[in-house]
Every structure is written in C-alpha cells, then in structure tokens.
TrEMBL record:
SUPFAM superfamilies: Fibronectin type III (SSF49265)
Ranges in a coiled coil: none
Lineage: Eukaryota, Metazoa, Chordata, Craniata, Vertebrata
Region named Disordered: 425-447, 1022-1045
Gene from which the chain derives: LOC108925438
Name the record gives this protein: Fibronectin type-III domain-containing protein 3A-like
Length: 1080
C-alpha cells in the first residue's frame, strides 16, 4: 500500500455551491444544517463571501447551512475521500483516506507536522476548499515540492460524439471520448465533482461514457499509466449533453374535493434541458375504462367539475417540452364526496345478564347500493358524570358488552358513519343488568339457654346481597334421624325466629338461605343443637310374660315400647320395680337395674300381690306406673314315667303309661311323641286316655316314645324315653319300573321289535334279604328272576302294548306288585326301495329310488366289477356315499366308461332295514374338448394350408377331426380324418368365408363322440398384382436375417376385445373432460 507516492494535492469539486456560514440561523424552513468533522491534525479552510479565507484546526465540528437543502462542495486532497453519514437527523461529512499504494522510486510522503498546500485549479477558485493539516499515519516522509510537468506523456481527450436518447423511459445520455493511447484512468467531473471510470488496457483509443444527465456540462481529463507508474494528467476538456423530453412527473394530488368537483395539483418534473411547454391530464371517467384527456395547458392545478358523488376516479399526468412528451405518472385514484347517513333507530336489548348486555340495531334508511356503514355504540353509566363513551366500532348490527356491573342502569345510543362523515346519534335508551343471587347468610346461632321445647334462633345477613336487597329469609329444620329431609319452619324478612313445639332431648339441624330479585342463595352452614331433656313419663302397668307358676313369677317389660310412655328426651338409665302385699301396705324394692325383665320368687300360691315400676334418666326419676294386682295360681303336673310298649304285629305297637301328680289341678290331657330317632320325635297322640296303639309302622325298625301330662295350669315336663323294635316282614312294593334302550344294557337285544328291556329300583327288604323278583306282563304265569334290577322280555309281538308289573321276594314271603307299566314293542324295519339310474354322464351318475315316508341310506361299491377282477371275492366292499331324506343323489368324480355297483337300505324309527341286491350302472364316455381357432397360411396364390392343434388319444380311443367352411349361413365339410393340417388348392376366397374345426372320439363300438367347434377364423384375401414384388422383398429380408411378417385376420374374440377397449378409452376421456370442465 506504500509502494507508490500520492499525487499532488489538488482541489476536487464535489456536489454543489457552498452556503454562507452566517445563514445558519436565518430561520428559513428550507435550510439544512450540515456538520463537517475535522479530525485531529487536520485544517479546514473556508472562503467567505467577502473573499476572506478562514482556517479551522481540528478536532472540531464545523456547522454549515444549505439554503436549498443541497450538500455544499468540499475539496479533499488526492488519496482522501468524503463520506456523508446521518446521525439523529443531522447529516455529517467525514474525510477519510483512500487505499493507496507506495513505490520506492517515488519521493517519500511529507512529515505529519509539515502541511503542504497546493493552489486549486484556476477554474475552481470560486469554490471553497478543505485541506488536511496532517497526513495519515502511514505517510512518514516529506511531500515533494510541486513538480512541473511538460507536455510529453500528456494526452488531451477529444470529444467525438454526444448523444441523447429520446423516449418515454428515463433519459440516458452518453458521449464517446477519443484517446491517443490505451490503458489510462479517466476522470469525469460533473458540477465540480469527480467520478473515476477505469478504462480497459488495450489498443483502443476511445472510451464511451454512459448514464449521463441530459443538458449537463461535464469536465474530463486523462493520464497515461504503465503498470503501477502513472504519468501526469492532461488538460481538462468539457462537453455538454443534449436535451431530452421531461422526466415522468409525480402523480397529482387532491387539494379539494366535493360531491361533483375535484381540484388536482401537481409539481413540475425535471425538464432535461428544455423548458416545459404544457401538461396533459387524463382520467378514466369513473368507469375503470380507457383514459381520456381532461386538460392540457401550462397550469399546475386544475378543477374537474360535473362528477358523480361517491365515485372513484383514476388520474395520470404527463409533461411536454420542445423535445417531446414525457412518460405518464403513476395512476392516482380518488373519490368524490358523498352524504353522511341518517341517524339510526335506538338500539334494542336482545339479552341481558349479571355482567353483560347484548344490544342490536337496524340499518338506517336512505342508503344507496354499495354503501358501507360503520356503527359506533356509545354507553353512559349513571352517576359517573363522564357522559357517553364509545364501546363498539364496527360493521355488525349487534354487540355484546361484557364486564358490566350487576344491577346497574346504563344509557346507550348508536351512530352510523360512512366515508363522508358520521350521522347524528340515535335517541338514548336505558337498560339495566340483572342482579346476582345473594351470598349465603351467616350460620344460625342460639340466643339464650336451650329449652326443652323451644329454640330462639338468630342469623346474620349475607355479606354480598348480589346487587338487590334481600326480601326474604327461609329457615329450615331437620332431625338427625329423620328421613323426610328439611322442613321450612320460618319464611319472612326478619333475621330471628323462635322454634317451638319441639321434643325435649332431640337433636335438630338448622340452616337458613335468603332470596332477592337476583334469585335464591346457597344455604348457610347448618347448626346442630339438642333440646334439653325432662324426666321420663310413667311406665305402663306390668304384664306377665307367661302363665303364673306356683313359687315364681316373671315380669318382663320394655320401657321404650310397651311399658314406658315417654323417655323425656334422654335415654333411661335404670328402672325400679316395687312390690307390696296390699294396696295400702308399704312398698319394697325387689329389683333395680337397666334390664327390662325380672322374676318375683318365693311367692305364696293363691295370695294377692301389688306391683309398681318407674324409670329414671339424667333429668331425674319419673312417676310410678299404675298398680298391677296379681294372685298366685296352681302349678303344672309332674313328669310322667317311661311308657310300657307291647308289640302286636310287625306294623303295630301298644303304648301305655301311669298318671303323674297333678300339683293342685286335675290332669285332663296327655301328649305322646313318637319317632324313629330319639332326636326327631313328633307329637303322635293328644287325649285323656293313658294309652295309645301306634299303627302303620315299618317292620324291623327301632322306635322311641315319651309322654307329657297337662292340667289347667299348663303342661308338665316330658318323662323318660322308651324304645321298642318291630319284627321283620315281606318286602315293600317295587318302584321306578321303566323300559330302557339297548345302549343302557350290557348285552345287545336279539330283536328290537320282539324284545323289551326293563329296569327297576330295589325296594326296602323290611329286615329280610330279597332273594328274587316276579314279573307279570299279561295273562300268562309271571316270570321269576333272581336278585337283579333289570331283565329283557323276549319273543314278544312287534308293535304291541304290554302291562308290566314287578314284585320282590324275601325269606318272609312275597311283597306287593308295583304299579302297572304300559310298554310297547317297536315295529319291524322297512324293506329297501328299488334303485334306478336317472342320468349317466362321463364323470357322474344320478340315482333315483322309490318315494315313501322312510329315509334312505345309500351305499356304493368303490371297486368296479366290470374292469377290475378280485379273485375269491364275490361282493365288493361297500362304502356309504349318502344318508338323508331325499330320493335322488348325484354321484360325482367317477371315471368314464366304468361300471359301478350300488346297494340301498331304508331305515326309520324302528331301525335299519336290510340291504338291497347290488345294482350295476355304467358311466358314459366324454367327448373331446373344444379346439383353438385354426391357423390359415397362404402358401401361394389360391393355395392355403390350414393347421390346428392335435389332441392325445383318450383312453386308447383315436381322435379324428372335421374341418368346415362357412359361406355366410352355408356350411361345407372340407376335411375329415386324423390329420391336424389340410392343404387347400385352387380356390378363390371371398371376404366372408371362415373356417372352423372340431375333434371327435372314435369309440371301439364304432360310435363317434364329437366335441364343440372351435372359434372361426376368416380366410386371407387375394394378394394384389404387386404381391410378387413384396414376396421377393420379404424373401430378401429373410435372407438378411429378419423374418418376414405375415398379416393375419383378427378373430371374433379379438375384435370384441378391441371394441371393449375402445369403449373404455372413450369413457375415461369423457370422465376427464367432465372432471375438468364441469366439476372444476
């Protein structure tokens, strides 16, 4: 950077003229203050209007004022540059060093403390200059003395051509400069400011400068350079660019508008060296169509009249001078004035709440189409004194105001506004928010002492009344153990109440809630209180628990239910029972406690006694109950002795006993209990006799017996238990005789139609083991069997009803017969039906048998007897192939031309019948399958070869083929034989001739089975005369290694496939068109 010296310090013009310093404070609104920053070691030189030179040494900020807002010219030495920055709205000029190079051959730079000045160019002496006092730090040597350069090495630039583009786009001017040598920097000056353009280093001696201003004077000079060495600059040459049409003016602006007029004003653009002679103003007539001229003249303001109110108009303007017309300005759109809307109707209340109100209003009348209204809803709160304030501004016809105070009145009015202004407000209306429900009152409290039958209750008002006064308090009461819930005991405006008619010693719950215009509050916290108890009331008179005994008396009672009329509101702590020998005699206590029963002992029989009872609780003793008078009575008799038991028969026993002591009352009844177990005795006899005969007893069974005596006092205790055992007897009757099936027996039945299998349960043996049974099933002699529980009756008549009875036998004798059982033998199984073959196919046989109500079970042989021999076996093995109610069955998957044997049997509820004799049926032979369409090849003219696929022989049967020619509806057989091809000579085919082929099976018996015909194929047409050439060409192609292509006619199936494919493509195209043009 320091290998080359700096050029001499020369004054360089920049920007425009310099304003005077004394103009800083003249108050002109168009003036602009600019600060020039002078760094330390630098000197700023100013030349005033009177010609004096003033030097300012840095560091300092020199204020300068520009009267027209332009930047003053500041001259800097070579190697420096000026930069303009803006801080807080003030523009500041800073002088900064440029990047320079230093060469050892150049003289060293001057020292920092030695300022070197160079006089400015003579053409620029009228400008002010700025020179730095010190050089930047990297300049460490003295500047050389001013050097004088000769004309050698200098070149004067020659202006060859000056051009100016004339069009509506921004004007571009250029000039061409001829230079005597190439590779030189060019310096261009515009109004005392230099711009440097770098020329390319070559042999050209011209340089074109573009992007110049029209009608502007420029100064230019050039210097020679070689590598890093530069020569002195040439003399300054000047030139002036040509004039151009004016620049595009700025869009016009509206300074006044009404319903039918618009006043527009615009500013003059840059004239580009030629004075502006007129302005052209156009507009679109408010129709958004093509622009039309509305004014042309010298004025910069114009008034357009007879316009439509509330209509948008578009304007544009262009300037003209002697050179031509400028481009149009940007389009400016404005609107004429309209009329303000009419006052709307007052708003209406749509809904209200505690903290919100919903208002709605209507559109005011007198509107035109396309008018857009904005509504302003204003609200005034009573008592604030702030007046109406806007709460909503928008285009909706309703509004919900939230965050309002409860139970408060508000005034509302609405205004409408459009682009022309606002309407008058509507008539104010007043609406109020609803009050809220009050808070819960305070918890009820008691005033004074708790009384047994009343409570004085008070409570506090709620802390929050919800915005409306409380109109009513409701006091509710409930008992702790009452399922009926709460009961209203008071309703009114007071905050206290005396609850009376209560029960002493009872727990009560109290709560209160209030009501206002806002609704009902929540219930307060409940108060639980108990009324004071009182002594219990009198007990009821004592009652006996049972009949009186001779020496003891029991007196149980229940004070809460039967004996105590009222407990006084507190639980009873104890009872006292008092007794006296007479009504006036002294009382003595013989029981005291909490139990509700007692026994009076050591009483004298036949004597009168008086009894009283009273109860006590925490409040004290209650009064005595009514007197209870009682006389003792005789006692029950003594227990009887064990009865005497005498056996009369195995089922009858005689019991007798003695009469016990009566204890003061005559015995008039005896009760005897009898049973087979000592713990399960039941009452068998009740009467005055001292004996009883027990009948219908079980033989060989132990029985127990005891007796009780009864007099007028009651029943005495039972006596001791006596025991007796009855002797054995004949067996009991047999039970549960039933007919069972063969599956329930160990052995099989010889014949279900002539046998009955019986089973029964073994009866009671009555003390002697059973040794056998007798079976009676008709008028014949009963059959005797051994000790068993089942038996099979054989040789019976089929389908016959029998009455069967069974009796048991033991060592004592024969027991009674069982109940009669009606049993019926089964009928005989059905005979097999006749089996027939309804239809025979190559792989199936349809069999049919006779109609009838019985179901048929069909079995078939798996080994054919016609073609497979089994030595030593007369009948093939049978396999069941069908079982069901149908009368036909089709046997599938059989072999062709094979004999099968079948047998059938029928079965019903009686069982399975016998098999029928074997039936033999044979399957038929199958015809050959359908062949593919034959292939037709044209060998020569009118010479064809027809080939088709060959089939294998079927089970040794040869295959023959038939070839047919279709001529419209006529058929002609061309060939019949075993070959799979046919050559056709000397025929001229027609376009509708077709060929088809079918295969036939020649059976050993001479019968031929023909299959279906193949699809037909059309004959190829005759070749044209040039066919020989094409054949030769095809043969030549074959010789080159490419097989010739043979044209074949399409078959009917291929034609149908092509037709279906065409329909599908058309449908897809239609779907795409509908999707694109209709749906989208």
């Amino acid at each position: 950077m320091t290998d080359q010296p700096h050029p001499p310090l020369e004054a360089t013009p920049m920007l425009s003229e310099v304003p005077l310093v004394q103009h800083m404070l003249n108050g002109d609104s168009m003036q602009q203050m600019i600060l020039v920053q002078v760094n330390p070691g630098e000197t700023f030189t100013i030349r005033t209007e009177d010609g004096q030179v003033r030097c300012i040494t840095g560091p300092a900020h020199v204020p300068m004022v520009s009267p027209n807002g332009t930047m003053p010219p500041i001259y800097v030495p070579p190697g420096y540059m000026s930069q303009v920055v803006e801080e807080n709205g003030v523009r500041k000029v800073m002088v900064l060093p440029q990047t320079t190079e230093f060469h050892p051959s150049m003289p060293p730079p001057p020292p920092l403390h030695v300022p070197q000045y160079l006089p400015p160019h003579p053409a620029m002496l009228h400008q002010h200059h700025m020179y730095p006092r010190e050089m930047p730090p990297h300049f460490m040597h003295q500047l050389p003395p001013p050097q004088m350069y000769s004309e050698q090495g200098e070149c004067l630039p020659l202006i060859q051509d000056v051009q100016c583009a004339r069009n509506l786009s921004p004007v571009v001017s250029q000039c061409s400069i001829a230079m005597t040598d190439s590779g030189y920097p060019v310096l261009l000056s515009l109004s005392s400011s230099l711009m440097t353009f770098s020329s390319h280093r070559g042999l050209e001696t011209t340089f074109t400068v573009e992007d110049l201003r029209p009608a502007t004077a420029y100064y230019i000079k050039v210097c020679a350079s070689c590598g890093s060495v530069k020569g002195p600059s040439s003399e300054v040459a000047d030139f002036t660019t040509m004039c151009a049409p004016p620049e595009a003016p700025a869009p016009p602006r509206v300074i006044l508008h009404s319903k039918s007029t618009l006043v527009l004003q615009w500013k003059a653009p840059n004239d580009n060296g030629s004075k502006i002679t007129g302005y052209l103003l156009e507009f679109d007539e408010g129709k958004q169509s093509a622009f039309k001229e509305v004014y042309f003249g010298h004025a910069k303001q114009y008034k357009i009249v007879k316009l439509t109110p509330s209509t948008n108009y578009a304007f544009r303007i262009a300037a003209k001078n002697d050179i031509g017309m400028s481009a149009f300005s940007e389009v400016m759109t404005c609107c004429t004035a309209g009329s303000a809307p009419q006052p709307p109707a007052p708003p209406r209340l749509s809904a209200s709440g505690v903290s919100w109100l919903t208002l709605e209003w209507n559109i005011p009348g007198g509107l035109t189409a396309g008018d857009t209204l904005t509504y302003t809803l204003e609200m005034e709160e009573e008592g604030t004194g702030y007046g109406f304030k806007p709460k909503y501004n928008g285009e909706e016809l309703s509004c919900t105001l939230k965050g309002l105070r409860r139970s408060t009145s508000y005034r509302f009015r609405v205004l409408a506004a459009n682009a022309e202004g606002r309407s008058q407000p509507s008539v104010p209306v007043e609406f109020s928010t609803t009050p809220d429900k009050p808070g819960a009152p305070g918890r009820p409290a008691l005033r004074g002492r708790v009384q047994p039958r009343c409570l004085h209750t008070v409570w506090d008002a709620p802390k929050d009344d919800g915005g409306s006064p409380v109109t009513q308090y409701v006091l509710e009461m409930g008992q702790n153990h009452n399922d009926n819930g709460w009961e209203v005991v008071y309703s009114g405006p007071l905050r206290e109440h005396v609850c009376d008619s209560l029960k002493p010693g009872t727990w009560y719950n109290l709560r209160v809630y209030c009501q206002s215009a806002g609704g009902q509050s929540q219930a307060s916290e409940s108060l639980t209180v108990q009324t004071a108890p009182v002594p219990p009331g009198p007990c009821q008179a004592l009652q006996l628990a049972g009949k009186a005994r001779t020496k003891r008396k029991e007196l149980p009672f229940n004070p809460a239910v039967a004996l105590l009329a009222w407990d006084g509101g507190a639980p009873v702590s104890q009872y006292i029972v008092e007794m006296s020998d007479s009504t006036q005699g002294p009382h003595r206590t013989f029981y005291q406690g909490l139990e509700t029963d007692c026994s009076a002992c050591q009483l004298v029989p036949g004597h009168k006694y008086c009894f009283w009872v009273k109860a006590a609780n925490q409040a004290g003793w209650g009064p005595l109950s009514e007197m209870y008078e009682f006389s003792t009575a005789p006692g029950p008799p003594e227990p009887c002795g064990p009865p005497q038991l005498a056996v009369k028969t195995p089922t009858c026993v005689l019991a007798s006993w003695e009469i016990p002591a009566c204890n003061g009352a005559e015995v008039f009844e005896f009760r005897m209990e009898w049973g087979a177990a000592e713990g399960t005795l039941t009452l068998t006899y009740c009467g005055p006799a001292p004996g009883y005969e027990a009948r219908n007893l079980l033989p060989a069974t132990a029985y127990y017996c005891r007796v009780q005596a009864v007099n007028s006092v009651g029943a005495g205790p039972f006596g001791d238990v006596a025991m007796v055992t009855t002797p054995p007897s004949v067996p009991a009757a047999v039970r549960s005789v039933a007919v069972v099936g063969e599956d329930a027996l160990a052995e099989s039945l010889a014949g279900p139609a002539s046998c009955l299998a019986l089973r029964w349960e073994e009866p009671c043996s009555h003390g002697a083991e059973i040794i056998g049974y007798n079976i009676d099933f008709g008028e014949q002699v009963p059959i005797s069997v051994g000790k068993t529980n089942h038996y099979i009756l054989e040789n019976l008549q089929p389908d016959t009803t029998y009455r069967v009875r069974v009796q048991a036998i033991n060592g004592i004798g024969v027991g009674p017969f069982s109940a009669s059982l009606k049993a019926r033998t089964r009928p005989l199984p059905p005979e097999p039906p006749t089996l027939e073959c309804a239809a025979a196919g190559p792989q199936s046989l349809k069999l049919k048998w006779g109609d009838g109500p019985s179901r048929g079970q069909l079995s078939g042989a798996t080994h054919p007897s016609s073609f497979v021999n089994h030595p030593g076996i007369d009948c093939p093995r049978l396999v069941c192939i069908y079982s069901g109610p149908c009368h036909t069955f089709k046997v599938q998957r059989l072999s062709e031309a094979t004999v099968y044997q079948f047998s059938i049997q029928a079965h019903n509820e009686a069982g399975v019948g016998p098999l029928s004799p074997l039936y033999s049926f044979s399957t038929s032979r199958s015809p050959p399958p359908q062949l593919k369409a034959p292939r037709v090849d044209q060998l020569e003219s009118n010479h064809y070869e027809v080939t088709w696929e060959a089939l294998q022989s079927m089970r040794g049967d040869p295959i023959v083929y038939t070839l047919q020619l279709q001529r419209g509806r006529e058929l002609e057989q061309l060939y019949r034989g075993p070959a799979s091809s046919y050559k056709w000579h000397g025929v001229v085919p027609v376009c509708d001739w077709r060929l088809r082929v079918c295969a036939g099976r020649r059976c050993p018996d001479g019968v031929e089975l023909w299959g279906p015909y193949s699809p037909s194929i059309a004959l190829p047409g005759p070749e044209p005369p040039a066919a020989s050439e094409s054949v030769a060409g095809s043969r030549a192609t074959s010789r080159d290694g490419v097989a010739p292509r043979k044209d074949r006619a399409i078959t009917d199936e291929q034609f149908a496939l092509l037709l279906l494919l065409g329909f599908a493509i058309v449908a897809i195209l239609f779907a795409v068109l509908i999707q694109y043009f209709v749906i989208k």
